[in-house]
Amino acid sequence: MPAGNNTYKKLAVQWLNEALCFVSSSVVADSFRLRNRQLLVAAKRWYQFKMRQHTLITIFLTIAFGQVFGQSGSSTIYKALETKKFYSVRLSSQTTNGKGTYEVNGKKVSKSTYDKYQSTWKNMETCCPCILKSYDENDVLIREAVSCTDCDVGVFKEFYPNGKVKLSGRYKEYPSENWDDIWARGFCSVPDGQWTYFNEKGDTLYSEFWKDGKFIKQVPEQKLTEIWEVELTLKEETIDKQELTVEQVKDLVVTPKFKNSHKDNVKLTINFEVTAVGHKQNKQSFTLDSFKNIDVTKMLSDVGISSDKQTKFMMEVCNNGFVIARFYLKIKH
Fold it and tell me: What is the number of domains present in the chain?
């Protein structure tokens, strides 16, 4: 990942959205057709038509930012944001004996094809803020959001392959002109307000309500088991930036928070990893019960990491094998 306001720097829950993160013009189109039809009926003379057409364009531009790229009746503190394109794909390249190989989403491609996708990383890195449009490898729009690099800071929409809106909502907006380290300021991808989910036909399925990053309710309540946050605590104190000892790690408590009353088929496991430059990584998996017996000192010694080495400690919480939260811990050893 490029540098900048990378959300994986945070010592808090890092939600892994499989869509990773992904405005419909339908509202604009519907509004345009309706108003234009009324305009044509009312217009009896060319002059009147041109005057109303001018009014329509003004209304259209207002709708385009206020309703389509947002939610009906919403307002925004941002003005005249630039729109940038970004390919949301996995890229990898390596050079062996002077010959380069390139991959996009795990498939080998030519250098020119690789460069096409890689070139848009600059758009993401310099987007702060902007309207970032994310496309898949087939140039299909999958997401549109007000962003600052990889942080969402305003309205967003995700799309189905057929172009219909899959999800619309917003993240907390950033009220300052100083965009340095917005995560530390508490404005990086903080859910806020109403999020609405749709089916592939455009019908509303349900809505969720958030307030400053905290989940409020789901209407109507869904039957699917959903965990919206994993809380990590030590002696009932939430772990944020505290420094831990290796002995305290085994006493950490993982508590899932659910969106609704359905809590079936939950199987939580923990992956714990230690890494240091010049050493092999040591990653081990635990059940919640076996984690109480974790020996971090032994994990370090098994790969030769001494106490004077700068070491990274990463803890993942999984549900049925899928990572749902990630913590980077500060541990003295």
Answer: 3
| Domain, as residue range, for 286 | 224-333
Q: What is the DSSP string of 73-96?
A: T---S--SPPEEEEE---EEEEEE
Per DSSP, helices labelled H in the chain are 26-42, 46-63, 111-118, 121-125, 296-302
Domain membership flag for residue 12: no
- Crossing angle of helices 26-42 and 46-63, in 10° steps, is 160
Q: What is the per-residue pLDDT across 199-227, written as a single tens digit (0 to 9) for each? A: 999 999 999 999 999 999 999 999 999 99
Cα gap 192→207, rounded to integer Å: 12
Residues 54 and 113 in one domain: no
Residue 15: pLDDT over 60: no
Distance CA 3, CA 7 (A): 10
* Shared-domain flag, residues 109 and 202: yes
Same structural domain, 59 and 107 = no
- Distance, in Å, from the CA atom of 143 to the CA atom of 203, rounded to the nearest integer, reads 18
Return d(Cα 141, Cα 159) in angstroms, integer: 7
Domain finish residue from 177, 196, 220: 220
26-63 residue pLDDT tens: 333 333 333 333 333 333 333 344 444 443 433 333 34
Enter the tokens of residue 206: 């349900």
